[in-house]
Design goal:
Pfam families: DctQ. The chain is mostly helical. The chain is built from six helices and no strands. 74% of the residues lie in helices and 0% in strands. It starts with a helix and ends in a 6-residue tail after the last helix.
């Protein structure tokens, strides 16, 4: 089990690093989109290559960050019934999901997508749009992204099995924490209260 836990930590570290780097792909897509809009408005010209590279960057950021999202358990969950169950029942539901749903899904996608990427690479297939880009780089995001998601699913599975054996911390602990949306709302509320307090301090005091 200790060897599996080391593997789990390595996968967690890998997806954490990739997740932190994805922001640069999003930034690049944003900059290219802005430049494309400026060129189109100012010079009345554009290129399908600019449009497609935005799609490529979005696809890469979305797919390779799937493992990072699972690491932080930010995928959509339906906890109406699950939250009312015991901790061991919740863990077993996750184990079944990772072992019998996520793993077969990822393996199926890899089985179907890898030959397609290889074929596109060998043929040099290009976009059907005028001035478009070569196809295989964006298709490569599919097997890479699902490989990272599969590895993270196995990591989560290992952590839950270790918890049931008493050899690991509670993997469900973060589920009781605030969601990202709740944390954002709380931060905005604190900022609004701080601004209101500063305005109150700066307002003139009544003369007696």
């Amino acid at each position: 089990m200790q060897a599996l836990l080391k593997f789990s930590k390595a996968v967690d570290w890998l997806n954490a690093q990739i997740g932190k780097s994805v922001i640069w792909l999003i930034l690049a897509a944003t900059v290219i989109s802005a430049l494309n809009a400026i060129v189109r408005k100012v010079f009345n010209t554009s290129s399908n290559a600019f449009l497609e590279v935005q799609w490529y960057l979005f696809a890469w950021s979305f797919l390779i960050a799937a493992g990072f999202t699972l690491l932080h358990r930010e995928h959509v969950r339906i906890d109406v019934l699950n939250s009312r169950m015991s901790k061991s029942a919740q863990v077993w539901i996750d184990i079944i999901g990772f072992a019998f749903f996520l793993t077969p899904l990822c393996l199926t996608v890899l089985y179907l997508s890898v030959p397609v990427v290889i074929q596109m690479y060998q043929s040099g297939e290009m976009s059907g749009n005028s001035g478009g880009l070569i196809r295989w780089p964006v298709w490569a995001a599919l097997p890479i992204g699902f490989t990272l998601l599969l590895l993270q699913g196995w990591s989560e599975l290992i952590k839950r099995l270790a918890f049931l054996r008493g050899q690991g911390p509670d993997p469900m602990g973060r589920l009781t924490d605030k969601t990202a949306e709740a944390e954002l709302i709380e931060a905005l509320r604190r900022e609004a209260e701080a601004n209101a307090g500063q305005k109150a301090d700066a307002s003139p005091k009544p003369q007696h």
